[in-house]
Amino acid sequence: MSHTDLASYAERADLTQGRRVFEPASRTRTAFARDRDRIIHATAFRRLKEKTQVFVAHEGDHYRTRLTHSLEVAQIARSLAHALRLDDDLAETIALAHDLGHPPFAHAGEDELVVQMRDYGGFDHNVQSFRVVTELENRYPQFDGLNLSWETVEGVIKHNGPVSHRLDEPAWSVVRPYAAGGEAGWDLRLGTFASLEAQCAAIADDIAYNNHDVDDGVQAGLITLRDLDQVPLIGPMLAEVRREYPDIDDRMLRIEAVRRMIGVMVEDVLAETGRRLEEDRIVTTEDVRMAKRTMVDFSHAMHVDLAVLRKFLFERMYRHYRVNRTRSQARRVLSQLFELFMAEPEVMPPEWGEPAMTPDKTQRARAVCDYIAGMTDRYAIEVHQKLFSLDLALDL
Predict the structure, then answer these.
(1) What is the C-alpha to C-alpha distance for residues 62 and 76, in angstroms, rounded to an integer?
(2) In terms of C-beta density within 10 A (0-12 exposed, 13-18 middle, 19 or more buried), how is residue 291 classed?
(3) Which top-level group of life is the source organism from (predicted)?
């Protein structure tokens, strides 16, 4: 969409607030498209292919990983942005970056790093994604991180809403320099809402995982289609598809019902967002940032239905004994790796081990945490086996 077709409250790549380190504009891409390309080429992005969504990445080829989840989020974010006449490159870029800091083994991995880092400055996967794009990715001779546009970095840290109230939490201390007057010299306006494009990425995340967790849960045999008949959103879709195609097989029924559920949720967001933009008289990007509430959101009725669906998924899928076993094993792997690396940083690869060779335990813990958070599921399992297996490993 050319910038002449964009809504007045859309971000404009030609009016970007720029990058922390100046770079001449690209001849072939807008600032936001260039950001997207940098994320796609990042090591942290490639590693998402072996990071768990709900099921450990090696449990089956058809389940979502963080990478396929991020691609689904990006597709939905782009569709929402296009329908709202926003900059779809920016929405897609923030969506692709939103999980770059997620550790291995999904939420079990994050929970374990939160425990291990409790005395050393904390851990938060949103902050870790921010650190990946601003300092940890090491691909350019001129700067640390990816040197992304202001609007992209703002969206990565603020896509779920203002964050200034979180700056006192230890895990968020690295974001403090980006507040007004902070030493980063780059004010991300942490007390305001992010762009509508960032809000599209945030809601696309909700739409994607609620739908694909239903899909993966049925495929994994943790729940059946009959279990879902009385559940809001998916139940009515199953009934509708059965009415239209009485002879449909279960596989196609599941796929079609989930596809329609995504459509229903997208339409709900577009209707509710249009209503809020009008009600709050939003005209400019500044109006979006200074608004009293999120603009891109579900209707109240959809929030109610989603709460019931999430409760069902939580009880029947996320806490299923098979998933619990994986969580238990994952937490044990990470806690043992963390303790070992803290005691013997010299067994880590030099780029992580050397920063950890310091008497400052907080600094050491951060280096250990960064190393573990970057691991894929498979790599974490392999490293754990090499270091803890009693077989004499000759290929250390």
Answers:
(1) 20
(2) middle
(3) Bacteria
Alpha-helical segments (H) within 245-299? 250-279, 285-289
Sketch the domain layout of the chain as residue ranges.
31-160, 198-320, 323-387
CB 243 within 8 A of CB 341: no
Residue in 220, 226, 222, 247 with CA at minimum distance from that of residue 238 = 226
Give yes or no for a contact between 360 and 120, defined as CB atoms under 8 angstroms apart: no
* DSSP 8-state symbol, 53: S
Q: Please, what's the b/e burial string for 368-383 (b: 16 or more CB within 10 A of its CB; e: otherwise)?
A: bbbbbbbbbbeebbeb
* H helices, E strands: number in the chain: 16, 0
Estimate to the nearest angstrom the gap between the alpha carbon of 212 and the chain centroid.
15
**Residues 31-160, CATH architecture:** Orthogonal Bundle (1.10)
Does the pTM surpass 0.90? The reply is yes
364-390 pLDDT, tens digit per residue, is 999 999 999 999 999 999 999 999 987
Q: Which amino acid is at 274?
A: G
